[in-house]
Design goal:
Helix content: 10-25%
Order of helices and strands: HHEEEEEEEHEHEEEEEEHE
Distance between the termini: 102 Å
Oligomer: single chain
Low-confidence stretches: 1-7, 9-43
Number of strands: 15
Structural class: alpha+beta
Radius of gyration: 28 Å
Strand content: 25-35%
Mean pLDDT: 81
Largest sheet: 8 strands, antiparallel
Strand order of the largest sheet: 3-4-5-8-12-11-10-9
Length: 242
Amino acid sequence: MKNWIKISIIIICLFVGPSLFSFLIKEEPKPISVNEDAIKKVKTVVDTSAWNEYINTQLGFSIKIPPETQGLDRCGGSKESLVPVKIFQDNNNNAVYITPEYYYDYRNEKCEKIEASLASLKAQGNINKPFVAWKIDVVKINNLDDIKKFIDDYYHNGCIYASQQLNKDGLYDIYVTDDGKTTDENGLGCPGEMHYKILYSPERQKMISIKLSIDYDFFLYNGPSGGFENFDQEMIKSLKFE
């Protein structure tokens, strides 16, 4: 009787086993669900109807600026969700700074509110991008040599003029590249990943230069399901000569 039971079990395994194994192998993984609503919110066009247009007649350019941006708190908390955007003019040096009015940082063993000022922005120099801010340089250009000299003076060691391309507005986008040999005291050359906007108008004999963040400086966080509204792109789109 026991032998009959053993034989029955073996027969069942021979017939059912391969089918079960085949089923387990052929079972495809379940598709990962995608939150389409979240994607749509992230890709939503930024509403700039309430933005202010800043016009600098002396330097001859304009740009649209959001009234507020997401606040930065490096202390680990969240003091204010939105912070006013402020402009500092340095017309004597043909420059304009756009920056959050303040941010929070942990200094001297306590959390401090760091107010933006023209002096603190200028102290960061011409080469490096100001922290969480933009510096817009406007320079007079007579020829290609002037463009090359500006890049040499205002961009990192090793950064040189690469090319220029005519855009749909009849202006030239200027591109920068690494010369492959020049480095600073730390052995660093022109950054491999550097974001910037250099716009040249031969008609006006002027060029505008802005060093940008790799991600973004001005934005709005819409919550876990809403993603980010990147203001930087819209600001750059609005930049023009006057």
